[in-house]
């Protein structure tokens, strides 16, 4: 091999080395670009998620306000309804009947309260009665004391029930949980029941310490306001 051929071979090898270094740089740049694109995609997802959260903010604020209002109320089911057409007479009847029903529980109605029936009147079935109390603490203690009495005493099967008032979203969530509970039981999960924690229904496994499939079922939660 003469000098000219050696020179050309050296140039060729040098060009190959240069191309190799260029390929390495291009690969490095591609990796950097891929990482930057992934970062941008993540930022876009975060921004879109934040935008969704901001758009739902008014609904969230409204729901919190509704829950605060409901916390002052109790719902009474099964209380006989007066047939009178006179509004004042119906209210007086509701107060008297409710007061008589809660006396065995050592409960008394406050002097200042507002109460009204929910929904349209139907023959043969009393409508739920909403009672608005002066504070959410009073409403909570009222429901707790009444239900504690019912759990520890023998009461007629047709006696009234009293529970907390719920917002529409809360009632929908309760329906969803009870529907899921029934579906899971149909699919063979019999060792589960519903327990309320801080007013929230949860499906939990039955550890043998609770009889029945439900715990503290809030019947008024599913009524329409």
**SS element count, helices:** 4
* CATH fold-level assignment of the largest domain: Alpha-Beta Plaits
| Contiguous runs where pLDDT drops below 50 for at least 5 residues | none
Helix content: 40-55%
Keywords: Coiled coil
Coiled coil: 9-57
Set out the fold topology.
Layout: H1 3-70, E1 73-77, H2 87-102, E2 114-117, E3 129-132, H3 136-152, E4 161-164, H4 168-186, E5 192-197, E6 200-205
Antiparallel strand pairs: 1-3, 1-4, 2-3, 5-6
Keywords: Coiled coil
Coiled coil: 9-57
Q: What would your notes on this structure say?
A:
The protein is of the alpha+beta class. It has three domains: 12-52; 70-165, RRM (RNA recognition motif) domain (Alpha-Beta Plaits), CATH 3.30.70.330; 171-204, no CATH class. The chain has helices spanning 3-70, 87-102, 136-152, 168-186, and strands spanning 73-77, 114-117, 129-132, 161-164, 192-197, 200-205. The strands form two sheets. A four-stranded antiparallel β-sheet has the order 2-3-1-4, covered by helices on one side. A two-stranded antiparallel sheet has the order 5-6. The longest helix has 68 residues, at 3-70. The termini are far apart.
